[in-house]
Every structure is written in C-alpha cells, then in structure tokens.
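Here is one such protein, fold included:

. . .
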Amino acid sequence: MTKAWRPPMGWNSWDSYGTTVNEQEVLANAQAMHDKLLPAGWNTLVVDIAWYDPTARAHGYNENAPLVLDEYGRQLPDPQRFPSAANGAGFKPLADQIHALGLNFGIHVMRGLPRLAVERDLPVFGTPYTASQIADTSHVCSWNPDNYGIDHSQPGAQAWYDAQVDLFALWGVDYLKVDDMQTPFYSEEIASYAAAIEKAERAHGCEITLSLSPGGWVPTTHVDFLREHAQMWRISDDLWDRWSDIFQQFARLARWAPFQRNGSWADADMLPLGHIGLRAERGDDRQSLLTPNEQRTLLTLWAMGRSPLMVGGDLPTSEPATLELLANPALQEVTAGSKGNCEIIRERVGAEWGKDESYLGDQIVWKAEAADWADGTPSAHAGGFYAAIFWTGSEPHEFSVALQSIVGIAKASQPWAITNLWKGLETLESDARIEGEGPDRVIAATIPAHGTAWLSLDPTEPEE
C-alpha cells in the first residue's frame, strides 16, 4: 500500500512541551491515545525538537547547547529525560513500548548537522571524511542555533544523512518531521533526505513517513517535487490557539485541496486543542483558548481539506470535551474516504449590501464526494457527499445553500438524507436541514459565531 495512504492522525509534543518533553510524558500520551483515540484513527506519537539537548527549556532555544551526540555526530536522546535511552540504546526501547500499543513512533530533527559535531570535527560514519569538510556554514537556520547546513558538493555529504537516518531506522522510527526545509525551500536538502530514507527502508525493510516543515510561502508550483520526495509538507508557519490563525488557513487549504493525493499531503499544521502550553514556546499553561465552535471549525476545515491531523494538547490532562471531539469517527472517515474536496463558495456578508463598513464575516462552503478508503474499507456514505458551511462572523447567522451546489444539478431532484457530523457533541451545534421542494431545495442552517455545519448527504429511495 502507498505510504501515508491517508492523512496521518497523531499527537506531537510541541504545543504542550516545546523542547522539554520527557519519556514519562510521551508514554502517558501514548497510553491515552491507545485507550481513547486509536479506534478513531489516531495512531502516531511524535517527539518534537531538542530531545538531544540536556539543557532544553521552555520558551526558546539554547546557544552552544551541549547536545548529546554519538562518536559520528548523530543526535542521541538525552538520558536524563529519556532514561531508557541510556548506554547507547537510543529511542529503540521507547519505540518498542509505543509499537506494543499498536502505535507509530516519530521524532523531529533539524536540517543539517550539529555545530558541535563540526567543532569536534567528528568523522562521518562509513567515510574518510569529517563533519567540518561537509558543513555549509552559510546555510544556518535563522531561529535555531543547533545546526549548520550541509554542502552537497562535497564527498561524504549524502553519507551524513544516510548514517543519521539509518540509526533512526534501527531505533524503529516510523515518522520523521524534518524542520528548516521549506522556508527558504532547500530542494537539494529535501532530495538528499528523501534518498537517505529510501536507503534505510531498503536496508531494514521498514517504512518511514517524511514530514517537511515549516511552510511559510510554499507555492503550489512545488507540488510535483514535494510528492516525489515527501509524504507531508507544511503549508503555513506555526499555528496557535487564536481565531486569526485559523482564519488564515481557509485560503491556504482552499489553494492546496485540489492537489491532495493518496500518499502525499499538504499539512495545515498541528491542532492547538486540549491542554497546551505546559512548557511550550508560546503562552502559559492553559486549555486551548479556541471556543468550542472554533475547535469544531478547525477540525472540520482540516478534514475537508484532507490535511494531516496532529493534535498538540497533552491528552491525559485535556478536557473530556476535547477528547470527545477528537474521537469523532467522521474525522478519519472524511480524510481517508473523500475525493474532489474543494471550496465552492466564499462570499463577504454585510449588514447592508454594497457597504464595506457593514461587513459581518465570510460565508464559506466546501464539498466533497464520499468514497471508499484507499485501503479498501467501505465508506458508510459512498455514493453521497460531504458538505461544510462555515461562518467567520462574530454573531450567529442564518444561511441557505442550494442543494444542487453540493450534489449536482442532475441529482438535485432526488431524495437526500442529511446528517450533522457533529451531532451530539456539546450544545452549540447547527440546525442544518433541507428545505423546499424539487431541484430548488436548499440546505438551511443557523451557523454559530466562528462555527460550522458539517454534513453528510446520502441518497435515499423515494417513500412509497
């Protein structure tokens, strides 16, 4: 089967713990995912940045950090935070525990090689070359001081990534989030890392999903290159629990949705839901500041855009309502089994027609065809459609959308059953319904502030 045949669904430590997550916290989130979310499709745990920095702290990075490296300059987990990694065991013991729960294990790594390896002039595994000979000191990350870039004109350059990824494969890593790759867009580095993954997969008989970050200003003209070399790529910078951040993703996902393909996914970033900010880069310890309606809008938009879903909140200490949202089976159903996903309507709405100063918000409508999953799983709604009506205004608003705009003109006169895919989750659901007769019927709904009506439409036989 195609690697990453559906958009991955998982947990990433960044929004909760920044650079500081430890083994106990990772295992607690793995257990919570297994117990509460695995049946709904959530199956990947990712340890984000700086797992090799024993001086890691909340709210930033450390200059000249004493990174834990092996004799070839490859990063090793800090044994103080990850005790099972002691004595050179690396992440294998932790990966084994996560695999035993039926989950995949992922880690974050920065582009390039550690400055500390260059300063020590450590050898590149399997070559006569050293780190100082392959380093490119002009390609330095603007926001993280740990690494230098790699000069791929030098012999031994590819061998660095080959050796690094080979070690990760030996540990049992299933998922690699590789950062500082796309802003600016380092095509040579991306191709080199993808080649290292392919070599490790052949050597060890494994599969490793490659996720590229960050995503500022990534153009759709790169899509063929990205599909060739990665399974996921970010399309925005970091997203946090602010409505303004969510609002910006409408346009990005509308731009990228037509390019989504099984095995290759444009990624709208992590979901800042649940208990975040425990020791994160931004903000204080908090439950997500997004309202319940905004949280449903976020999840609906990501699902209709077929973005990967990587939640950032600490699962054991998140509110039950958050876990209930994440456990909605429609998230996996739509991301795994839909096609033709696209934004079909986006209109500014004002209190008075033609007067910009009376602007209230945007009405945005998405549609998709329900389809069986790529792994052969039948869809409960095959032959039907999914629709999402979004409202970006700050007060509830009544809308109607022509049924034929979702199901097509030829099918508009057929009988259709409508189901609210968020029904039963809290009390702020929309009241979507089909009104009227014949081909001119409409879907009518009162959409709450920053909210959505997320629907399935299924054909039914006419009543006798």
